[in-house]
Amino acid sequence: EAGVTQFPSHSVIEKGQTVTLRCDPISGHDNLYWYRRVMGKEIKFLLHFVKESKQDESGMPNNRFLAERTGGTYSTLKVQPAELEDSGVYFCASSPDRVEQYFGPGTRLTVT
Amino acid sequence: AQSVTQLGSHVSVSEGALVLLRCNYSSSVPPYLFWYVQYPNQGLQLLLKYTTGATLVKGINGFEAEFKKSETSFHLTKPSAHMSDAAEYFCAVSERSNTGKLIFGQGTTLQVKP
Q1: Are the beta carbons of A101 and B102 separated by less than 8 Å?
Q2: Do the Cβ atoms of A33 and B103 come within 8 Å?
Q3: CA distance A100 to A95
Q4: Cβ of B36 under 8 Å from any chain A Cβ?
């Protein structure tokens, strides 16, 4: 069984540019989560999808962040325009039951 | 708001020594409890979890954790450290009636000395 995959593994962009991160969950997992770890801080929840619907987006930092989940399969997280404080590692996780979550390797975003 | 505290951002042990990583949570209602491990350049891997039942939970790679409601703790232990245990460890909780979102502690980096 393939695990959660994320693309790209690393992205370096300039302040003001746009970046789109992608997450492919484990097949059949309806629940998909995004988390972020800013350097030196704890991993923080961003949002939760059930299939294509956003269930909880209470952790999204501001309206520069837009998440979508096309057809309940893969998800994208777009940051537009990127700011320096957006730098960090973005993790995606999927779950069949909202209890056990399977994490991807993360995307390291560096905004210069 | 729910919070998770991991005591010690860095822990160093000798190979063969006991590993003890501490985790305390703030909720008065016992949540689901998890320990994740992140090896260098990899994603988070679930070590073990407590949802219900026996309070001593065994996980992968010889790790175990004990849920103590009276102490609101879920400390992670391993009797004998191996060099391969060097990694960052995260304690996390999720509320039972919620969406399953995880609240993480700050992480503890475990160093194993030969």
Answers
A1: yes
A2: no
A3: 6
A4: yes
Q: Is the pLDDT of residue B97 over 80?
A: no
Under a CB-based contact definition with an 8 Å cutoff, are residues A42 and B36 in contact? no
B97 touches chain A (CB under 8 A): no
Q: What is the reported pLDDT for A1?
A: 66
Which uninterrupted H or E stretch holds A50?
A: strand A43-50
- Residue B61 and residue B85 in contact, taking contact as beta carbons nearer than 8 Å: yes
The residue type of A63 is N
Q: Which residue of A has its CA nearest to B44?
A: A103
Residue % of chain B over a pLDDT of 70:
100
Q: Which residue in chain B has the smallest CA separation from A10?
A: B41
Per the CB < 8 A criterion, the answer to whether A22 and A90 are in contact is no
Minimum CA–CA partner of B6 in chain A: A42
Residue in the block written with tokens 């991991």: B6
pLDDT tens for each residue of A76-110: 999 999 999 999 999 999 999 988 999 999 999 99
